[in-house]
Design goal:
The protein has about 180 residues and is mostly helical. The protein has one domain. It has 6 helices and no strands. The chain is globular. It holds the Pfam family DUF2878.
Length: about 180
């Protein structure tokens, strides 16, 4: 239980640093430290690393897609989301097998969490980081709720896949020895 609480607190610390720091250089140091602590606690760096990388890339692509659809405006022309927003996906990935594992089953828990919490997180982050929502607040929140109701179960699917691959490798190694 203490590791789950620490995992949640580290995520929250990372979220605050990302939205307040923007793309400042020390942002990378803080997020790298949080991820390093996280990786020191997990049993499989390989499985967790695959999960972190997959969620980081998929999430960054999703938010960049939403940016190009006009859901977000960062105050300058850009095709890709800023680093601070991409790093939030990395931090989120670090919670999937840990403090958010309870939302994996049944699937509707993660959908409900995604639909409720993600839009509020985006809204708070947008206010702090001075990101505008060109479609308006309520239409953006509805879009994000619908997207995240689908995204969270998919992210848990990534987590399950890499966890099962790791467990299969362990079983194979034990039976071979």
């Amino acid at each position: 239980m203490p590791k789950l609480i620490a995992n949640a607190l580290l995520f929250q610390l990372g979220w605050l640093v990302c939205v307040f720091a923007g793309d400042s250089p020390w942002l990378l140091v803080v997020v790298a430290a949080i991820i390093a602590v996280h990786l020191l606690w997990v049993s499989s760096w390989a499985a967790e690393g695959k999960l972190l990388l997959s969620v980081f890339l998929a999430g960054s692509a999703l938010d960049s897609f939403l940016l190009n659809l006009g859901v977000f405006d960062f105050g300058e022309p850009r095709q890709l989301i800023p680093l601070w927003l991409a790093l939030l996906w990395l931090l989120l990935a670090s919670t999937l097998n840990h403090c958010l594992a309870w939302t994996a089953q049944p699937w509707w828990r993660s959908s409900l969490l995604g639909a409720l919490a993600a839009p509020l997180s985006y809204y708070g982050g947008a206010k702090i980081a001075d990101v505008t929502l060109p479609l308006g607040t309520w239409p953006t929140l509805v879009i994000l709720a619908l997207v995240w109701a689908l995204v969270m179960p998919v992210l848990h699917g990534f987590a399950k896949l890499y966890r099962e691959q790791y467990e299969q490798r362990l079983r194979s190694q034990r039976s071979a020895s």
